[in-house]
Amino acid sequence: MSAADGLDWLAVPALAPELAEPLGISLARMDPWVTLGSSAESLARGLQTPHPDLTRHLALRQGELQGLAAVRAPWLRGAYIELFAVLPSAQGRGIGSTLMRHVEAHYGGHAANLWLLVSAFNHRARQFYARQGFCPIGILDDLVIRGQDEILMRKRLESGSERRSSRLPAVSSPDAR
Ligand SMILES: CC(C)(COP(=O)(O)OP(=O)(O)OC[C@H]1O[C@@H](n2cnc3c(N)ncnc32)[C@H](O)[C@@H]1OP(=O)(O)O)[C@@H](O)C(=O)NCCC(=O)NCCS
């Protein structure tokens, strides 16, 4: 059985302090947040702050958090993954890929695009997202901290509206007769 089997899923508007505070500490100890200078306190505060457009998708095993994706929707004709992480003890075992499939299944059909930002120095995450079908769209320099580039990535989803429009007959041009 792989580590990604048997996960439980929870979608919540915000994390309770008992979950947000230890998670803030874990995230602040790993890249990209180390290099970007994010403190445990600011990460924990962010995770506890609800917003009507934000959903936190949690992957749990026997009640223990394995990974999470914080997703803002609607965002630019789709949904924007503003935080994506698997806890260090659970990484490299397929949980990130499973979490991404879960996010796609949740937003696919409503959203035409999934968006995210990845730090240029975060090579492992860039490779991971490329394998998940995300394409680099542009570079945003000095966005989070001076001297570090962030890369905007996009994955097109087959949305309900696209499926509907693909059934429409092609518009014929008067010259094409
Ligand atoms: C990037 C990240 C989300 C990937 O999550 P993950 O759970 O480690 O990802 P997966 O296990 O699905 O895939 C990653 C690797 O495991 C391998 N893998 C996938 N399924 C596997 C399985 N069943 N068994 C063993 N290995 C597996 C993949 O081939 C991949 O190889 P890599 O080490 O060359 O990248 C995670 O490493 C992470 O949280 N990193 C720190 C935070 C971060 O950078 N977040 C992104 C910010 S934008």
Helix-strand blueprint:
Elements: E1 8-12, H1 17-28, H2 33-36, H3 40-48, E2 54-61, E3 64-72, E4 78-86, H4 95-107, E5 113-119, H5 123-131, E6 135-141, E7 149-156, H6 160-166
Parallel strand pairs: 4-5
Antiparallel strand pairs: 1-2, 2-3, 3-4, 5-7, 6-7
Helix pairs in contact: 1-3
The protein binds coenzyme A.
Can you offer a commentary on this structure?
The C terminus is likely disordered. It contains six helices and seven strands; from the N terminus they run βαααβββαβαββα. The chain has a seven-stranded mixed β-sheet with strand order 1-2-3-4-5-7-6, covered by helices on one side. By secondary structure, it is of the alpha+beta class. It has a single domain, classed as Aminopeptidase (3-Layer(aba) Sandwich), CATH 3.40.630.30. Helices cover 31% and strands 30% of the residues. The chain is globular. The structure holds coenzyme A.
Bound molecules: coenzyme A
H and E order = EHHHEEEHEHEEH
CATH-derived architecture: 3-Layer(aba) Sandwich
Individual helix count = 6
CATH topology, what is it called? Aminopeptidase
C-alpha Rg (nearest Å): 18 Å
The biggest sheet amounts to:
7 strands, mixed
Order of neighbouring strands in the sheet with most strands = 1-2-3-4-5-7-6
Counted up, domains total: 1
| Total number of strands | 7
End-to-end span in angstroms? 59 Å
User: In CATH's first tier, which class applies?
Assistant: Alpha Beta
CATH superfamily: Gcn5-related N-acetyltransferase (GNAT)
Low-confidence stretches: 162-169, 172-177
Strand content: 25-35%
Helical percentage: 25-40%
Shape: globular
**Helical/strand content category:** alpha+beta
* Mean of residue pLDDT values: 91
